[in-house]
From TrEMBL, chain A:
<keyword id="KW-0472">Membrane</keyword>
<feature type="transmembrane region" description="Helical">
    <location>
        <begin position="114"/>
        <end position="143"/>
    </location>
</feature>
<protein>
    <submittedName>
        <fullName>ABC transporter permease</fullName>
    </submittedName>
</protein>
<keyword id="KW-0812">Transmembrane</keyword>
<feature type="transmembrane region" description="Helical">
    <location>
        <begin position="67"/>
        <end position="88"/>
    </location>
</feature>
<feature type="transmembrane region" description="Helical">
    <location>
        <begin position="183"/>
        <end position="204"/>
    </location>
</feature>
<feature type="transmembrane region" description="Helical">
    <location>
        <begin position="242"/>
        <end position="260"/>
    </location>
</feature>
<feature type="transmembrane region" description="Helical">
    <location>
        <begin position="155"/>
        <end position="176"/>
    </location>
</feature>
<feature type="transmembrane region" description="Helical">
    <location>
        <begin position="17"/>
        <end position="40"/>
    </location>
</feature>
Automatic annotation (TrEMBL), chain B:
<dbReference type="InterPro" id="IPR003593">
    <property type="entry name" value="AAA+_ATPase"/>
</dbReference>
<dbReference type="Pfam" id="PF00005">
    <property type="entry name" value="ABC_tran"/>
</dbReference>
<protein>
    <submittedName>
        <fullName>ABC transporter ATP-binding protein</fullName>
    </submittedName>
</protein>
<keyword id="KW-0547">Nucleotide-binding</keyword>
<dbReference type="InterPro" id="IPR017871">
    <property type="entry name" value="ABC_transporter-like_CS"/>
</dbReference>
<keyword id="KW-0067">ATP-binding</keyword>
<dbReference type="InterPro" id="IPR027417">
    <property type="entry name" value="P-loop_NTPase"/>
</dbReference>
<dbReference type="GO" id="GO:0016887">
    <property type="term" value="F:ATP hydrolysis activity"/>
</dbReference>
<comment type="similarity">
    <text>Belongs to the ABC transporter superfamily.</text>
</comment>
Length: 270, 309
């Protein structure tokens, strides 16, 4: 298992894809955090005027947290793609053949992929979150707003944001194991994360029972881990406890990987 | 360790839906020899090798290496090195990075990757991305991958594809060297002439079935000039063959004499002189490639359920 892990880790880092995606994530998250940080400070300015206090009804530190954890809301597509392509690219380039020659125990192989992607997911989580924190805090400081970086709860959210993004890479491996066509993976990931889930959450929130269901969607579960999000703070949906969110996300990842194990990884490799 | 490196394929069959890719195939491959695994395109060579490697699940039958199924072998890359057709690499990885993927699983230091590149003459391209490699270079890299674990069994699927004549000559020497070290070397090809100077044994298949298995000299013997003489006078024909000291091949029918190393004119003249009545006198010189085609053609079409086999 240890050897399989080292091999999987090397597979991930010997192609250019991972650091291109990492770079994209860092730049995108920094940009979003700066933009939202600026927007939030404008909101605070308005919120401090008498009369609108009631309407906003949000603690300023919670608002700032949404800036620092913005990667969980808008950036999880990057670790998700890295995880999914870790499996799909093996089928695309037929490297699955030498891979299975080196490790014929297919359960060991899938497990090694899940774990190694989780570790790389931590890297994505760290870089994406720190990019958001750095850019967000910088903008807030420039605008003379409190950054709340001296509060433990802020750092707890930041750490949980990293965890959530790492779990997204695990979900990616599960997803790639079920759907091995690389192009289909990219299309479905983008469609689901950018369109299907946001719309579903919005629509479900309109019904009486839907909000509970929506909390179990993977995106909502991820946001729950980080303890709040752009969506939840703006009242679009309610969230689970952080640990529940982590378990739900892990269940998606491991569940999908298990399905992949008994479908994709049981088939003949020809 | 029990693995002596003998490959055993035993009543192996594989169906892909309606396609019977491998059909009740049995043969054995001995260590210390280069064995050619031959058959036209679509004969079932790759499918057989994939079953041997645990990548494709047989419909029935077994395929083992040193008595073990591939999946049962601990650290399989140390026992078996296999390069399958359409050698598969990520185009964005360098040759050295590709090899270093597997060193942990083989259980050898990373330096071994450089060594095997040297062995196959690819050192100069170690840090180049595989995407820019020619087919011949990919074949060498695939071969290098198989050598990482210094395995006693090598399975190579069409390794000569894409090699230039110089490369083929190099490969020939290389495979002979590996076999001389006592390894089992199984090399597939769709043309006999490509491996004719390399192999000690041949296993010929067609339509998923065994057409012929023997040593190369035995195959070559079959390819010698053959004369076929048919006479209603069984005793006379037998006496004539005896007296003339011709080599007579086994033929089911006593009225038929399949003779080697003699030409039709000689047989005709002798039969005329001895007064043996001939109803047929034909000769043929198929050559090795012709014999190959003939053997391959002799396998029944699928569906005609091989009672004769
Ligand atoms: N995955 C597959 N699905 C359906 N048919 C297949 C598959 N793989 C191989 N075949 C068929 O099995 C037969 C044997 O193929 P193959 O083993 O590749 O032959 P060879 O390697 O001797 O050229 C061919 O008819 C081929 O079309
Ligand atoms: Mg083939």
């Amino acid at each position: 298992m240890r050897a399989a892990l080292v091999t999987e880790y090397r597979k991930l880092v010997t192609t250019r894809l991972w650091w291109i995606l990492l770079l994209c994530m860092a730049v995108y998250m920094a940009f979003l955090a700066a933009a939202v940080g600026w927007g939030v400070s404008q909101g605070n300015a308005m919120g401090s005027s008498p009369g609108s206090d009631e309407q906003l009804a949000l603690a300023p530190d919670a608002v700032v947290r949404t800036v620092y954890t913005i990667a969980v809301t808008f950036g999880y597509v990057f670790p998700l793609l890295v995880g999914a392509l870790a499996v799909a690219s093996e089928f695309r380039h037929q490297t699955i053949t030498p891979t299975l020659l080196a490790e014929p125990r297919r359960t060991v192989l899938v497990s090694a992929k899940v774990i190694s992607a989780g570790v790389l997911g931590l890297v994505f989580g760290l870089v994406g979150t720190l990019a958001a924190v750095g850019a967000g805090a910088a903008v807030l400081t420039l605008l003379d707003q409190p950054t709340f970086l001296d509060e433990a709860s802020t750092w707890r959210s930041i750490a949980l944001s990293v965890l959530a993004l790492a779990l997204w890479a695990v979900v990616g491996v599960g997803f790639g194991s079920v759907l091995t066509n690389q192009v289909a993976v990219i299309v479905v990931v983008l469609a689901f994360t950018q369109f299907v889930e946001p719309v579903l959450r919005f629509v479900l929130a309109l019904t009486s029972w839907g909000a509970d269901v929506a909390a179990y969607l993977p995106g909502a579960a991820g946001e729950a881990v980080a303890g709040g999000s752009f969506f939840s703070e703006s009242g679009v949906s309610s969230l689970l406890e952080w640990w529940q969110g982590a378990l739900v996300l892990l269940a998606y990842g491991v569940g999908l990987a298990a399905i992949g194990r008994v479908t994709t990884f049981r088939r003949d490799i020809t | 360790m029990t693995t002596d490196g003998t490959i055993l394929v035993d009543h192996l069959s594989k169906s892909f839906g309606p396609v019977r890719a491998v059909d009740d195939l049995s043969f054995q491959v001995a260590p210390g020899r280069v064995t050619g695994f031959l058959g036209p395109n679509g004969a079932g060579k790759t499918t057989t090798l994939r079953m041997l490697l645990g990548l494709v699940r047989p419909t029935s039958g077994t395929a083992t290496i040193g008595g073990q199924a591939y999946g049962e072998i601990r650290r399989p890359l140390r026992t078996v090195g296999a390069a399958l057709e359409a050698a598969s690499f990520h185009p964005g990885r360098t040759a050295l990075d590709h090899l270093r993927l597997y060193t942990p699983q083989v259980g050898v230091p990373d330096a071994r990757a450089g060594e095997v590149l040297e062995l196959v003459g690819l050192s100069a391209a170690a840090d180049r991305r595989v995407g820019g490699f020619s087919l011949g270079m990919r074949q060498r890299l695939a071969l290098a991958t198989t050598l990482l674990g210094d395995p006693r069994v090598l399975l190579l699927d069409e390794p000569a594809n894409g090699l230039d004549p110089e490369g083929i000559r190099w490969l020939r020497g290389f495979l002979r060297m590996l076999a001389a070290e006592g390894r089992t070397v199984l090399v597939s090809s769709h043309v006999l002439s490509e491996v004719e100077q390399t192999v000690d044994d041949v296993v010929i298949i067609a339509r998923g079935r065994l057409a012929h298995a023997s040593s190369l000299p035995d195959l070559a013997r079959m390819a010698r000039v053959q004369v076929r003489a048919v006479s209603p006078d069984v005793a006379g024909l037998a006496a004539l063959v005896e007296r003339s000291a011709w080599t007579r091949a086994e033929a089911g029918d006593p009225r038929v004499a399949e003779l080697w190393d003699v030409d039709a004119a000689t047989v005709g003249a002798a039969a005329f002189a001895a007064g043996v009545e001939l109803h047929e006198l034909t000769s043929r010189d198929p050559g090795l490639e012709g014999l190959f085609l003939q053997l391959v053609g002799s396998v029944d079409a699928p569906g005609t359920d091989g009672m004769a086999a």
